Amino acid sequence: MEGDIVQMGAYIGAGLACMGMGGSAIGVGNVAGNFLSGALRNPSAAAGQTATLFIGIAFAEALGIFSFLVALLLMFAV
Amino acid sequence: MATEANSDEGGLVFHPMDQFIVQPLFGDGPVGMFTITNSTLWMALSVIAIIALMVLGTSGRSTIPGRIQSICELAYGFIYKMVEDVAGKDAVGFFPYVMTLFMFIVFANFLGLLPAAFTPTSHIAVTAVLALLVFVTVTVVGFVKHGLGFLGLFWVSSAPLPLRPVLALIEVISYFVRPVSHSIRLMGNMMAGHAVIKVFAAFAPMILLSTGLGLVVTPLSVIAIAAIYGLEILVAFIQAYVFTILTCVYLKDALHPAH
């Protein structure tokens, strides 16, 4: 086992950064779940709101992807 | 890092990130500004595929569309309706740009799913250029159409007056984060999916190393590859859709900046 403490810290940090993906998973689940419950109440209005659904998912997902990016930076750039 | 993983005993057979290496197609010199690489090849292939589909599809132009013509009409109508619905009726002038973006991204994503293919959209260099072009276009269009009134986008007039400077700061920051999240979303999704497939692919030949463990690990990883591949087909389309629809949302902001 060789290597240095900086590399160890980078790897641990990359693993910790992955916890952010859980947050974005909760966010995306919230958006999709609320869309579904609304869509089941008023199915006729649901078709017109799918674009809004995807925009909402995209915004929620962006922050999870930032944490993925931090993990990648720690793995390959630091 | 790739060499470390390869030299480890019992480590992965190949590194999951190896598929993203940009290599020159001819010879093995350094990659310069104008070197023809595998990235260039797959971008060119997707452009050729788009041209083939659209030219073949519209060459017949029959009233009752054939199969290829139906696909073209479907794609055209889908994007046209999206621009009209999301960005507004006065944004249809930007329809060719949005359609080009969508077709390029969707073809690059789908061609990248072929085995041994290279995905240009999994590189930040490609997606950042696409996103920056959208950002610059939107900003220029906003200022040309509305002059300094475009800055009203950052001044939330429906909020109480003391809150407005704070909101303006947040709006400005979120405006400049747009190209970052726009490009990283596409690149991150493409890269993560392909890397996961390759991680499972590296576990698949476990049965050659140890029969006992391999009997469990090998079938599981083959099933996982199939499942994730199915998910990736979905993601390849949805990410192209999301990129396009966000372009439309940004265009709407530029054309109608008032809150």
Describe this structure in words.
- The complex is a heterodimer of chains A (78) and B (259).
- Chain A is mainly alpha-helical.
- Chain A has one domain (22-77).
- In chain A, 86% of the residues lie in helices and 0% in strands.
- Chain A has four helices and no strands.
- Chain A has helices at 5-17, 19-41, 43-46, 50-76.
- Chain A is rod-shaped and about 60 Å long.
- With 259 residues, chain B is mainly alpha-helical.
- Chain B has eight helices and no strands.
- In chain B, helix 3 packs across helix 4.
- The longest helix of chain B is centred in the C-terminal third of the chain and has 45 residues, at 211-255.
- Chain B starts with a helix and ends with a helix.
- At the A-B interface, helix 4 of A face helix 3, helix 6 and helix 8 of B.
Q: What distance lies between the first and last C-alpha atoms of chain B, to the nearest angstrom?
A: 49 Å
Q: With helices defined by DSSP (H or I, 4 residues minimum), what is the helix count of chain B?
A: 8
Distance between the termini of chain A: 20 Å
The assigned structural class of chain B equals mainly alpha
Shape of chain A: rod-shaped
Strand content of chain B: under 5%
Protein name (chain A): ATP synthase subunit c
GO molecular function (chain A): hydrolase activity; lipid binding; proton-transporting ATP synthase activity, rotational mechanism
Family (chain A): Belongs to the ATPase C chain family.
Transmembrane segments (chain A): 12-33, 53-77
Write the layout of secondary structure elements.
The complex is a heterodimer of chains A (78) and B (259).
Chain A: H1 5-17, H2 19-41, H3 43-46, H4 50-76
Helix pairs in contact in A: 1-4, 2-4
Chain B: H1 2-7, H2 38-60, H3 67-87, H4 95-112, H5 124-146, H6 164-203, H7 206-209, H8 211-255
